[in-house]
Design brief:
3-stranded antiparallel β-sheet, 33% strand, 3 strands, mainly beta, binds zinc ion, 51 residues
C-alpha cells in the first residue's frame, strides 16, 4: 500500500487495528482506514495522513 506522502510501498499485512504508525520511509504519521461496503461486503483499505 502506498504512503500518501512519499509514495513508497508500505507492508501492512501484519498490522491490525487503527493505531497510528509512522511511515518507515518519510516518518509521517499514518492511519489505516477500513471502510466496509455494505452492498458488496468488500473491505476498502487506504492510508491517510494522521493530522
Ligand atoms: Zn512515507
Amino acid at each position: 500500500m502506498k504512503c500518501p506522502d512519499c509514495g513508497e510501498d508500505i507492508e501492512i499485512e501484519d498490522w491490525m487495528g487503527d493505531e497510528p504508525f509512522g511511515c518507515p520511509y518519510c516518518g509521517i504519521i499514518l492511519r489505516l482506514i477500513t471502510s466496509k461496503d455494505a452492498y458488496s461486503d468488500a473491505n476498502d483499505k487506504r492510508l491517510v495522513i494522521c493530522e
